[in-house]
Amino acid sequence: MKIGLNSGGPNLARTVEDAARAEEEGFAAYSMPGDSTATLALVGAKTSTIRLLTAVVPIFGLHPASLAGQARVAQAAADGRFTLGIGLSHRISVEGVLGMSFAHPAARMEEYLKVLGPLLRGQEVDFAGQFYTYHARGRRPDSAPPVPCVIAALGPIMLRLCAELAGGTILWMANAQAVEEHVAPRIRRAAERAGRPDWEIVASLPVALTNDVSAAREIANQQFANYGQLPSYRGILDRGGAATPGDAALIGNEADLDAELDRLERAGVTLFNASLFRAEPGGPARTRDFLASRARERNRR
Asked: Which residues partner with 168 through β-bridges?
C-alpha cells in the first residue's frame, strides 16, 4: 500500500508549492477535493514523479465530454501521472443547491461512465441514454496517455460499476473493517466477473499523531460532524463499526498509526491518502513528517 496526502486549498500558489513539497518528502500521491482538475494540471507541470488525483469531481452539472477534455489536458500536463476521481455528491447538494433531480443516481453514473470512459482512453463514443447522449464517431486518436478513473462508491451497485466500468474506487470515511468486509469483496467479485484484473482501492481518512487520543477524537467529531449525518457516509461508518467520524479516524502514537496503516493494507487498500487535521498545536506538521517517513519506506519496497 502506497501512502499519499489529501491536501490542497483555495490558494493556488500554495497548493502548487505544497504538492511539490509532498513530492520531495516522498509521498506517492497528492489528491485534492472537488473539481480540482485544472489546479492539478498546473501542479502536474510543476512536479515530476508524484501521482495526482481529484477526490472527487461531482458529476452533476458537468457533461462527461467536458470533464474528459479537462482530464486529458491534466494528464498531458502531468505526463501520465493524473487519475480522475469522480462521484455523485449528495442529494442535499444536488437538489438543494443545483436544483437538479437526484433520482436514479447509480443509473446516471453508469451512463456517465459509458461516455466518459472511452473518451478518457481517446476512443470513439456513440451513446444515447436517458441522462446523457454523445455522438463522436470518427474521432482521430491522439497520443495523450489514457486517464485512469476511480469512483467514489460506497453502495453495492456503485461498487460493481467501479470494477466493470472504471479502475476502482476512491473512499472517504471507510475504515479498515468497512473496506475488508464490504468494499473489497464486492469489487473483487465484480472485477472477476468482468475479467478486469487491475483495479484499486484508494482510501482517505482523517489522521492525527498524538498521545491524547480521546481529545483528538472529540476534535475529529466536531470537525467532521457532517459526515456522520450524510446518508452515504453514515452507512459506511456503520459498516465499519464507527459510531462517529472520530471513531473512523486514524489517531494515536506512532505504533498506533503503524498498526492502523497495516490494517488498511491487509483489508485491500492500495493507496492511502491521509487527510491531516489539527488535534493539538503543531500536530499536523508532526503527523506529516511521520507519514512521509512511512511513505518513503513503502516506496522502497
From this structure: 200
Q: What integer is the mean pLDDT of 113-121?
A: 96
Task: Give the sign of the dihedral formed by CA 51, CA 263, CA 196, CA 137.
Answer: negative
* 3-class secondary-structure state, position 29: strand
CB 78 within 8 A of CB 41: yes
Using CA atoms, how far residue 1 sits from 135, 170, 280, in Å, is 39, 14, 28
What are 217's three cell numbers? 477524537
**Residue 45 corresponds to which cell in the numbers above?**
507541470
Q: What cell numbers appear for 90 in the block?
A: 449528495
| CA 3/CA 274 separation, integer angstroms | 7
Contact 280, 212 (CB under 8 A): yes
- C-alpha cell read off for 213: 487520543
User: Can you tell me the distance from the alpha carbon of 68 to that of 84, in angstroms, rounded to the nearest whole number?
Assistant: 9
Cell numbers describing residue 118: 472511452
Contact of 107 with 132, CB cutoff 8 Å:
no
Q: Which CATH architecture has domain 2-213+253-299?
A: Alpha-Beta Barrel (3.20)
- The pTM score is 0.95
Kindly report whether the peptide bond that precedes residue 57 is cis, defined as omega within 30 degrees of 0.
no
For residue 82, the cross-strand partners are 52
Q: State pLDDT tens for residues 45-70.
A: 999 999 999 999 999 989 999 999 99
End-to-end CA distance of the chain: 10
Phi-psi region of 34 (alpha: psi -120 to 50; beta: other; left: phi over 0): left
Backbone dihedral region of 201: left (phi > 0), alpha (psi from -120 to 50 degrees) or beta?
A: beta
Chain centroid offset of residue 293 CA: 22
Beta bridge partners of 201: 169
Kindly report the length of the chain.
301
